[in-house]
Amino acid sequence: MDFMQEAIKEANYSLKIGEVPVGAVIVKNNKIISKAHNLKEKMKNVAYHAEMIAISDASKKMDNWRLNGCSMYVTLEPCPMCAGAIIQSRIDKIYIGTFNPTCGACGSVINLVQNKNMNSFINVEWTYNKQCSILLEEFFKLRRCNS
Predict the structure, then answer these.
(1) pTM of the predicted structure, to 2 decimals
(2) % the chain with pLDDT above 70
């Protein structure tokens, strides 16, 4: 199974409801345990990023806030809030579809997840998936046209 494609499907759900198109999937032992998309506008809550929702859901399903042995596939590089949650949840590895030039916290603007002063070191793999970039371009093009 292509887990990044599953994250892209989640991002498409966000796009359809007017949210920034970001999707996240959490995998353990080659099985999806959680997937989510942005719901910040719908829920009127700044914490409803795809990564935060996916982590919360995975923690409930695993009955543990520690997500050791899990990987996250996310279409857009996590922001500082989400990177902090990834560190706290002890996810082992993140696969990132495209960089976030405004507030990326996994290497493009800052790198919280691989900071030697932090409690953990998260492995990061950049997949540079063109579909992830296109979704964001479409969203912001529509937003400019509608404003």
Answers:
(1) 0.94
(2) 97
